[in-house]
Automatic annotation (TrEMBL):
Keywords noted in UniProt: Hydrolase, Membrane, Protease, Transmembrane, Transmembrane helix
Keyword Transmembrane found: yes
Any single GO BP term: proteolysis
MF GO annotations: endopeptidase activity
UniProt xrefs under Pfam families: Rce1-like
Membrane spanning stretches: 7-23, 29-60, 72-90, 120-137, 149-167, 173-194, 206-222, 254-274
Superkingdom of origin organism: Bacteria
Residue span(s) of domain CAAX prenyl protease 2/Lysostaphin resistance protein A-like: 173-264
Matching InterPro entries: CAAX_protease, Rce1/LyrA-like_dom
Name of the protein: CAAX protease
Protein source organism: Vibrio breoganii
Length: 276
């Protein structure tokens, strides 16, 4: 398995994300600066992309510093900026293709994976906009997690019954790359958006149940490209991730549950789906 020499850029990026998750924000942003400079040096980030990043961060940082119209204007721009980054619409970023139409087995459809540079930056922008993004630890009633985890565990076998997946035990030689990418780049960004931001902010205004439901539905809709069955499954899975966040009060718990679900999918079932 050969990689582009610029892959090292994602090492400080992953470290920066890990530091931010444990609350070391200054160290995280310092390490992120190294990653961004490295990305520019390796031509993975253009001057335009750097300006897009700095401008997005600057506007996001104004959300907690202002009130009224200025606050909501900064919030609106931050949301639009985050959407653009998530959908890879903003210019100046060259994400790295690391897996090109690989298969875990002949029964799985081909799978392509990029190491994204733009999408993970959403996490840092939301950290600036919402200082409480990571949540607040509280006394955990572990029994409250039993039902959501049982529901989550049942989703993959149900997908097999419905024909979307097949049972397949495999450990592809790129499993470690999937682990690092999915855990630190994909799951962190998605949980920051849907649980740290959407669920938490709506919960403050309308109660935790409404926050959980709205965030879960939006998470499902975000999987629209996969069809209605995937939307339904993603909505239910999102509710389980949301419960992990609500019960523990910590974003990292939702990230971990989200990642473990994806990793179990990779190890024991056709990935991403079965060939029909």
């Amino acid at each position: 398995m050969a990689f582009d020499s610029s892959i090292w850029v994602w090492i400080p990026l992953a470290i920066a994300i890990a530091l931010a998750l444990i609350g070391k924000k200054r160290a995280a942003f310092a390490t992120l600066a190294v990653a961004l400079l490295g990305a520019w040096f390796e031509a993975r980030l253009s001057i335009t992309g750097l300006l897009v990043t700095v401008l997005g961060f600057a506007i996001a940082s104004q959300v907690p510093r202002n009130k009224g119209f200025k606050k909501y204007l900064a919030l609106t721009v931050t949301i639009v900026w985050s959407l653009g980054m998530a959908l890879h619409w903003l210019p100046g970023f060259s994400n790295l293709l690391v897996l090109d139409k690989v298969q875990t087995s002949p029964a799985s459809i081909p799978f392509t994976m990029y190491l994204n540079l733009d999408k993970p930056l959403i996490f840092f922008a939301l950290l600036l906009a919402f200082p409480g993004l990571l949540g607040k630890a509280k006394s955990v009633e572990w029994q409250s997690l039993v039902k959501p985890l049982l529901v989550l565990t049942s989703l993959l076998p149900i997908a097999v019954i419905l024909g979307g997946l097949g049972v397949e035990v495999s450990l592809p030689n790129w499993w470690w790359l999937f682990l690092l990418n999915n855990l630190l780049l994909t799951c962190v960004a998605e949980e920051a958006i849907f649980r740290g931001f959407i669920q938490q902010e709506i919960s403050k205004q309308l109660g935790w149940k409404t926050g959980l439901i709205v965030a879960s539905i939006l998470f499902g809709i975000a999987h629209l490209a996969g069809g209605w069955l995937l939307i339904a499954f993603a909505t239910i899975a999102g509710a389980c991730y949301g419960m992990a966040f609500y019960v523990t009060g910590r974003l990292w718990a939702a990230v971990l549950v989200h990642f473990m679900f994806n990793f179990i999918h990779l190890l024991f079932f056709t990935y991403p789906i079965a060939i029909r």
